[in-house]
Amino acid sequence: MAGKLPQIAKAIAGIGEFLDKSAAAKKLVDKAEDVIEQVWKKFPSCLTDKKSGPAARSASLSSEDPLEGCKITNEMVDATWMGRDEFPTRNSFGIWAWGGNTKDGALDLRTPSHVAAWKAKAFTRADALVWQLFYEQIHQSAVARHGVGSPKINPSAQHRAELFRYIIKNLGD
Q1: Which one-letter DSSP state was computed for residue 153?
Q2: What contacts 168, CB < 8 A, 6 or more positions away?
Q3: C-beta of residue 70 within 8 angstroms of C-beta of residue 133
Q4: Which of 17, 58, 62 has its CA nearest to residue 40?
Q5: What is the rounded CA–CA span in Å between residue 118 and residue 125?
Q6: Which of 1, 55, 105, 143 has the fewest other C-beta atoms within 10 Å?
Q7: pTM of the model
Q8: Which phi-psi region, left, alpha or beta, contains residue 58 (left: φ > 0; alpha: ψ -120 to 50)?
């Protein structure tokens, strides 16, 4: 038995190291859950079903029509850029984010470098989703009011929604 003491001591030390690593991993998981929850809070409640947790998030985001019964407000979209020194106005943000006031500006920004710029400025997929839904809402509302193909439909809204879909797809976690 005395000859086995070094092996037992080594095993006990290994268990201690394992427990230390497990505790560190739990802290990392807890921190990640906090970050996810903060991002989740940026989504409008109509997308989150007013429930919490991974199951609610998964169910909400897999909906075929995420706009059904959901109204994205100016306050929601403004919350994504306000308080950032480089964007004193929505117009300055718009020039950077979707190419300004041109009809096709958003199409030209569907590039890896624009996605990298979003990452560099710490914008999230939740931010981009709010803008995507906002522009889809503008487009769908105009079609409902004026009919498909009407000249009164905002021609850039659909392109901007496509840009934000591209950003969401390529932004990563």
Answers
A1: S
A2: 125, 128, 129, 132
A3: yes
A4: 58
A5: 9
A6: 1
A7: 0.61
A8: alpha
